[in-house]
Amino acid sequence: MTDQEHGACCAPVQLATVRSPSDPFLLAPASVRPAAAELVALDGGWFRMGSDDAYAYERDGEGPVRSVRVDPFRIAAGTVSNRQFAAFVEATGYVTSAERFGVSFVFGGLLPDDFPPTRAVVGAQWWREVPGACWRRPEGGRSTLDARADHPVVHVSWDDAMAYCRWSGLRLPTEAEWEYAARGGLEGMRFPWGNTLRPGGKHLMNVWQGQFPGRNTLADGYLGAAPVGAFAPNGFGLYNMTGNVWEWTADWFSQTWHLNGTRHNPAGPSSGERRALRGGSYLCHASYCYRYRVSARMANTPDTSTGNIGFRCATDA
To answer: Element (H or E) spanning 103, and its range?
Structure first.
């Protein structure tokens, strides 16, 4: 399989299926749900979505570039943090997909040298299936969230993200909304700030520096995830729209739906097997995964969780 078929290079696929139960408390009246994210109001409108860039992955369905219109909406300035997700769990007793599975996927370079051997993903040996890894224990074992309260919550599945959104009275952004927001008002650029990865030699996002997967120079300041508010925001005041952690969107993933789909508030096909993710992560490197661009896409099953997947919330204007 290619990396897009099983998601291994960017984020492996959970092979079992453990669906979260229906939780009535998640549908409580809006008046009793806290506002769990700082939201930025965006005007919406027409924009050029997708890419015909030579760097685009044809198999991901990035192109062709097409004109798309989104209505006004609001989106969180940053991804949901560990602090915010902990408040949700404390209020509801929610148990995530990774906690139900009892395992999740962790980048091996984040594990201590004496970590017991665990199963690696074939063809992407840097991914290790770690018992006990979950949002509370990002590297499994004795790992904690100490000094990471303001880091993005990870090891959350699409199901978990939706549960948090329901509790918050919010939702996930569509792919079109996400890309409109990520572009920050710019047209046709690869990154939220332009076409140059490091303008003036300055690092503006958290991706792999050096030679993947064996050497990370940490030139951008981080090995794993960076705080939600790290680096400068884009033109809309949104943080880390590329790099840091992949972000779940509301849409089912399709390589071709957009070729004939609606151009006004497109929301992807009505069904599918995998959900679309956007933005890339701290593990992306141009040598194997140049998906830390505003038009790039990935897909994974709704119950999969890894140490480089998070989410941000949105809502109608």
So the answer is: strand 103-107
* 3-state SS class at 4: helix
Please indicate, yes or no, if residue 168 is contained in any of the structural domains.
yes
- Helix residue ranges, H only, the chain: 3-6, 82-92, 97-101, 158-168, 175-183
- pLDDT, tens digit, 9 for 90 and up, residues 260-292: 989 999 999 999 999 999 999 999 999 989 999
Distance of CA 153 to the CA centre of its chain: 10
* Neighbour-count burial for 179-193, b at 16+ CB within 10 Å, e otherwise: bbbbbbebeebbbbb
Neighbours of 252 (CB within 10 A): 19
Q: pTM for this structure? A: 0.93
| Domains: count for the chain | 1
Helices and strands, number each (H, E), in the chain: 5, 14
Give the per-residue pLDDT at 10.
Answer: 78
Phi, psi of 293 (to 5 degrees): -125, 155
Structural domain including 44 reads 3-14+37-316
**Contacts (Cβ under 8 Å, ≥6 apart) of 47:** 67, 68, 69, 70, 179, 180, 183, 187
